[in-house]
Amino acid sequence: MEFDDKVPIYYQIKTVIYDQIIAGQLAPGDKLPAVRQLAVSLTVNVNTVQRALREMIDEGVIISQRGKGNFVTDNADIVEQLKEKLINRYLKQFYDRLHRLKISNQQIIDEVTAYIERQGDLNDNNAES
Amino acid sequence: MEFDDKVPIYYQIKTVIYDQIIAGQLAPGDKLPAVRQLAVSLTVNVNTVQRALREMIDEGVIISQRGKGNFVTDNADIVEQLKEKLINRYLKQFYDRLHRLKISNQQIIDEVTAYIERQGDLNDNNAES
DNA sequence: TCTAGTGTATTAGTTTCCTATTACACTATA
DNA sequence: TATAGTGTAATAGGAAACTAATACACTAGA
């Protein structure tokens, strides 16, 4: 996998897994790949995977069972809260950035709309990928 | 100033200065504060400021004149290109993030609109700050 | 010409992230 | 009960970012 060298890898791994949970690719109760397997597929050290997991466990989203594996919490509320938290974080960061550039609110909406019309034509159906 | 500990400080300094240039708070030809002054006001080491400047100089946005100071390029085209580049980068990052969460294109637009209505009411006029 | 204000470079030391390696703890099952 | 598959911990070493301190190079103006 490709990583942004401006952000810690463990943090990007956490983001990827959270995204998969929110997108439903990892459902509540699902078992994650083994840490050693994750490390191989991400081309990263086991300790780096473990660090990402540590934070997700501390946040209650991942449940760890020694000897068995790591699992997505079966508490759907936690997943739902995570989703809202992340969406709001992304919205805020995006809005703050453009607002700092003195782009007006209407312009921000227009830019997003135009961007989606330009780039998003083929990706409107979210069923496949 | 507050920094995000997930991103190198020098990179965040670069972002702040670029934002000020694009927002017009630093106009083409304007002189930047002295590096030592910037270091103090950002509560950061001179070398860290210098590293941010180095990249902006290499990218042609800042012109350095030894003994005189650092200046925003007076080439308005470069500034305009920078603006488009950054806006597009922010749009792409935002869109990719939400799309990864399986948020549909229409939902993305709706979320942005709702967010702005919620948060942006008092900031619609961009003349003051 | 001296001095203050500017950018630039270098060296040394700390912290964080990441890797590599090894070891340990627990579970399920042949 | 052995073994394979799992999570967890600890140590050591390297690389990048940041700080601190010092020195050097250039400009403008008294």
Structure notes:
The structure is a homodimer of 129-residue chains. Chain A starts with 8 loop residues before the first helix and ends in a 10-residue tail after the last helix. The radius of gyration of chain A is 17 Å and the shape is elongated. With 129 residues, chain A is mostly helical. In chain A, helix 1 crosses helix 3 (46-58) and helix 2 (35-41) packs across helix 3. The first copy, chain A, folds into two domains: 9-74, Orthogonal Bundle (Arc Repressor Mutant, subunit A); 77-123, no CATH class. Chain A has five helices and two strands, in the order αααββαα. Mean pLDDT of chain A is 93; it is low at 125-129. In chain A, strands 1-2 form a two-stranded antiparallel ribbon. Helices cover 58% and strands 6% of the residues of chain A. The A-B interface holds A 6-8, 11, 19, 22-24, 83, 86-88, 90-95, 97-105, 108-109, 111-113, 115-116, 119-120, 123-124, 126 and B 6-8, 11, 19, 22-24, 83, 86-88, 90-95, 97-105, 108-109, 111-113, 115-116, 119-120, 123-124, 126. The first copy, chain A, binds a DNA duplex (30 and 30 nucleotides) through residues 5, 8-10, 34-36, 44-48, 50-51, 53, 64-70.
Keywords summarizing the entry:
homodimer, 129 residues, mainly alpha, Arc Repressor Mutant, subunit A, 2 domains, two-stranded antiparallel sheet, 5 helices, disordered C terminus, DNA-binding, WH_DNA-bd_sf (chains A, B), WH-like_DNA-bd_sf (chains A, B), DNA binding (chains A, B), DNA-binding transcription factor activity (chains A, B), DNA-binding (chains A, B)
